[in-house]
Amino acid sequence: MSETPRPRGLSTEVLLGYGVGSLGTGIYSTVPGLLLLYYMTDTLGIAAGAAGLAVFLPKFWDVVTDPAMGLISDRTRSRWGRRRPYLLAGGLALPICFALLFNAPGAGETAFFYTLGLYTLCATAFTVFSVPYIAMPAEICGDYHGSTRLMAYRMGFMTAGILIAGAGAPLLVKLGGGGRAGYAMMGWVVAAVCLVALLGAFWGTRRAPFVREVSETPTPVTAQLRVAAQNQPFRALVGAYVLQVTAVGCLLAMVPYFAKYVVGGDEDTVTLLFICLVAPAIVTMPLWLAVSRRIGKERAYTGSLLLFAAAATGLWWSPSLSFAAAAGCVAVMGTAYAATQLFPFAMLPDLQQAAAERSGLRQEGVLSGIWMAVDKGGLALGALLAGKALGWGGFIASEAGTSVVQPGSAVTAIVVAMSLAPAALCLASAALFQRYPLDRRG
Fold first, then answer.
1. Which of 164, 206, 248, 347 lies in the 20 to 30 Å Cα band around 305?
2. Which pTM does this prediction carry?
């Protein structure tokens, strides 16, 4: 296989065009992670265990669809390139499915199966967009620090999306009157913003300098998966990342419960906590880039995991802390969160390029598919653990408009799932990541 020379620099247009897609993916990933479990247990009256399962199963489906989507995009040939046609298809389908997700009919069993089905459609549409999208950087940026710069743009937009979603979605629910009507309005408004951002990535990357393969012999999927499985650095990074994302998924799912049952707040409290989490991530992004240039993105990633674990542990004492102190712990977690999202995605193109040089096989799509399955699966596993924790604590589900008093065991379960569980997962992630070769290139 031969290819044209890879450009060393990227225009601002391409950097912004690629990055804006993450505004949409950040919004989409955040809203279900933050509100879907709570919506099911406290609006639709679905039991906590069943609600956790409805969040987890569609993401388990991604274990199959994400690598398959990567292989499909690897083999695609079109005048728009290998990846961009799927940005258009996924960018159109995902917002529609998302809006319908928060318009569930009925309650209990009916609402459970409706939510399960719509969330599965959302997951599939997101796969169509996100896997090719994540595969693109390895084809348009070919140096160690260049990939970090491109990922910084992506993370800047994604963090903005997370902030918009985390702060804005609960307020939209409140402005819509709360309950089913509030969630329905929120769903349509958020879907419209996602549509603009996702299609913006399709349009904004039209001039991206993609690598052009002159010839390529199709490789069976089993052989491609075997090559991926033999990639020890990829295994180490994926293993560390899934633990970290599981921690984030568990924490996100707990934020509304923490705000209501531990802090004694409402939707405004959820918004404040999310601002405390995400605003520091935006502010400290340039700092993490500077740290990366000095010590390498690999060591910076390890340090961020340890910082996240320390801050999460501080929330264990949140029932006896002031809200300001608890918010301070969340702000430190936000500082670390910026790096825990930036550096793994910045290392992925390095691994993809190294794998291509070593094996002679370009499989950015397959590796990105595996990566996205891990990313989404980890978030879903975190939500499942959160649901199980609520079930173990004896949490009482309710429909919109009703009020219940939760037992002390449920409140304890919320605090554990918000603090000690994410801390332990991040420590395990840092330990596993030490198997990754800390070889600073560039």
1. 164
2. 0.71
Q: Which residues contact 416 (CB under 8 A, 6 or more apart)?
A: 316, 389
* Total number of domains constituting the chain: 1
CB 31 within 8 A of CB 24: no
Residue range 287-325, pLDDT digits in tens: 888 888 888 888 899 999 999 999 999 999 988 888 889
C-alpha distance across the termini of the chain, in Å: 25
In which domain, by residue range, is 127 found?
12-205+221-433
What one-character-per-residue DSSP string does 112-160 give?
Answer: HHHHHHHHHHHHHHHHHHHHHHHHTHHHH--SHHHHHHHHHHHHHHHHH
> Does residue 271 belong to any structural domain of this protein?
yes
In a domain, 171, yes or no: yes
* CA–centroid distance for 159 within its chain: 10
Tell me how far apart the 2 most distant CA atoms of the chain are, in Å: 66
Q: Is residue 214 part of a domain?
A: no
Please enumerate in sequence order all residues whose Cβ is within 8 A of that of 333, keeping only pairs 6 or more positions apart, or say none: 251, 277, 308, 311, 312
Query: 240 and 432 in contact (C-beta within 8 Å)?
Result: yes
Token pair 């599981």 is at which residue?
246
